[in-house]
Amino acid sequence: MQPEEVITQLGGVATRAELLTHVTEGALRRALAGQRVVRHSRGRYALPFVPSIGERVSLEDVAQTARRAAHQMSGTAVLQSAAARWGWRMKWYPTRPQVAVPRGRAVPASVRRRIDVRYRDVPAGDRDDGWVTDRVRTALDCAGQLPQDEALAIVDSALREGMVTQDELLLAAAGLPNLYRSRAESVIGMASSEAANPFESVLRWIVSDIPGLQVRPQVEIHDDEGKVGTVDLADEELRLVLEADSFEWHGQLDGLEKDCDRYDRFIAQGWLVLRFTWEMVMYRPEWVRAVVIRTMEQCDLRVRRPGPGRRPGEP
To answer: Is the dihedral of CA 69, 71, 72, 77 positive or negative?
Structure first.
């Protein structure tokens, strides 16, 4: 077996001791000379290719980059880098691997340019496999420290995976420092395992504080003919639908007809339907929010809850 094969089997990184249980010292030297293996630091080795996170990469790429960085620094992958390890989808990938190291450790500037270094102590009980925060700690860190739209997308994904629950996270959040507790509890309380993807999660966050609007994810709508479809977000009392629309090419007539049929039936049942593209949601959130507020003015006032600028009972 070659050193690079051992490193691959060990997940992309290995210590000198781990390598020398499978290969000879000469084989390791030859692999280093041939640049089939690189030495990150004293006694720590990795494969030479690390994908640039700025490129189009997968969650697995992000996780492997984080693992190498954590291994190099004898630290712990945290935040989005840790979320990638658990396969949780997110709004944005981190531009650099995020690694926590003990407070007071001196880290060269050249390393900080490549790695987003966080100075904090991570207890052994909060780590998994020695290099990454476990699921609960990862979700809590993201909920308490990231921008709330990014945090919601990750916590939604964590709940969707089914390995942690909302009650479990809320109980754990009670032990956070005051600086992060209320922020984490707010995100976790809003999170839902029903959310389909980060696109939908971010849209839900954008409209979450609009007075009089209460949307739920993945709502089934029916009419006299049966099920019309499942929409991304809906306020069933206001009969308002918000769709996070990915680009779709209707290459065949039946695809276009199905789409028209679906939305015509929504309208016939008294629903107002708003469709937002990924670019609108990610780059124009204030515009999206303003459009939703204006559209609420068109909702049936007889069933309308108090909205922006209204008191209960006012027209």
So the answer is: positive
* Cβ proximity of 43 and 20 under 8 Å: no
Q: 150 phi and psi, to 5 degrees? A: -65, -40
> For the chain, which domains are there?
3-46 (no CATH), 59-193 (no CATH), 199-296 (3.40.960.10)
Q: What is the CA radius of gyration of the chain?
A: 24
State phi, psi for 76 to the nearest 5 degrees: -130, 125
- Asked if pLDDT for residue 76 goes beyond 60, the answer is yes
**Sheet containing 226-235: which strands, arranged edge to edge?**
216-223, 226-235, 240-245, 272-277
pTM for the predicted model, two decimal places: 0.77
**DSSP code of residue 124:** G
* Helix axes 178-190 and 148-161, enclosed angle (nearest 10): 60
β-sheet bridge partners, residue 133? 127
What token pair was written down for 246? 């990915």
Helices (H) and strands (E) in the chain, counts: 14, 12
Residue 63, both tokens:
């996780």
**83: closest CA among 180, 159, 11, 8?**
159
> What per-residue confidence (pLDDT) applies to 49?
46
Please calculate the CA angle 4-5-11 and round it to the nearest 5 degrees: 90
Q: For residue 126, count other CB atoms closer than 10 A to its CB.
A: 17
Residues 165 and 182: beta-carbon distance below 8 Å = no
Residues 95 and 54: beta-carbon distance below 8 Å: yes
Judging by beta carbons within 10 Å of its beta carbon (0-12, 13-18, 19+), is residue 70 exposed, middle or buried?
buried
The position carrying tokens 């004898």 is 74
Instruction: Give the pLDDT score at 311.
Output: 45
Which of 186, 179, 87, 101 lies closest to 138, judged by CA? 87
- C-beta separation of 216 from 234 below 8 A: yes
Does the pLDDT at position 38 exceed 80?
Answer: no
> Kind of pairing, strands 272-277 and 240-245?
parallel
